[in-house]
Specification:
alpha/beta; Rossmann fold; 2 domains; 8 helices; 28% helix; globular
């Protein structure tokens, strides 16, 4: 499995007609943009090629857009945003699963108040009573800075006893916020499905639908003409590779701690080789941070 460790994107980015960028771990760390990220995005857009931000954020794109503005990522730095929250809302609005059929269905939500937009204007009722719920929506941990999935085991065990299906609006297990790792909705979904026997439907990366929707929005039908940038082998690189999209692994994101990297450092060939053997696929390129 071949890959190239490169200093930045300038030597190959012009070979593509469109770009898909992850957000958390690539553009920003949850607090501020990474050094050089905005300059790199500006370079990518200089030729007029479309740039889409594809995020596993469990809220709809309007809320993500406002969050980005608040941490210093302006709207003119990209063309479009697509989130796993958008995909979850589409499923809810179109009632794509049998358990969503009917009116006035009640759901119990695992997640923080900031996770908004999924059911706005739709015919669903949020309940705080698991026994009254028809299904679950998981957007994350309510206090993700201090909680772990174990804090939810009892609630998830009760939900499993009622055989409540779960819609997971963020397949990520963890995310870097500043210098700290926090658990995401995917970690709760994994516990619910793998240990407690619950039924889970996940939306976002690495699932093909996320990339098919991205390609439609970009107006590019040939995956070989797209370059994707992400920091997670499990989601970003797996999803892009599965669709035949060339990709860039940013080592300064979620894998930085396991590789014991300082900001901007590159992993060694041996480290990347080991992780590609663990996952069974390789990134096309590897960079420390997304810089030009």
């Amino acid at each position: 499995m071949s890959f190239k460790i490169v200093p930045g994107l300038s030597s190959f980015a012009e070979n593509y007609d469109a770009y898909i960028l992850d957000l958390w771990g690539v553009v920003h760390n949850g607090v501020r943009p990474y050094p050089g990220a905005l300059e790199c995005m500006a370079k990518l857009r200089e030729s007029g090629k479309p740039l889409l931000l594809l995020s596993n954020a469990p809220r709809t794109n309007g809320f993500v857009r406002e969050f980005l503005k608040g941490i210093g990522v302006p709207e003119d730095a990209y063309d479009q945003i697509l989130t796993s929250g958008d995909m979850t809302r589409l499923v809810l609005s179109e009632k794509r699963f049998p358990f969503l059929e009917g009116k006035g269905l009640k759901f119990y939500q695992f997640g923080a108040e900031k996770d908004k937009g999924l059911d706005d204007g739709l015919d669903y009722i949020k309940t705080k009573d698991l026994a009254a719920a028809d299904f679950l929506i998981c957007t994350g941990l309510a206090k993700d800075e201090v909680e772990t999935p174990e804090d939810y085991r009892d609630l998830l065990t009760e939900a499993a006893s009622y055989k409540l299906p779960m819609l997971c609006a963020n397949p990520d297990l963890t995310v870097m916020k500043g210098d700290n790792i926090q658990y995401c909705a995917g970690a709760l979904a994994k516990l619910y499905e793998e240990e407690l026997g619950g039924t889970v439907e996940l939306f976002g990366k690495p699932y093909p639908w996320a990339y098919k929707m991205s390609m439609e929005k970009l107006g590019v039908s040939d995956p070989s003409k797209i370059l994707a940038v992400g920091d997670s082998m499990r989601t970003d690189i797996k999803g892009a590779s599965g669709m035949g999209i060339d990709n860039v692994l940013v080592s300064g994101g979620i894998h930085a701690e396991e590789w014991e990297l300082n900001p901007g450092d590159h992993p060694s060939d041996a480290q990347v080789q080991e992780i590609t053997e663990d996952y069974g696929f390789a990134p096309t390129y590897v960079v420390g941070h997304m810089i030009w």
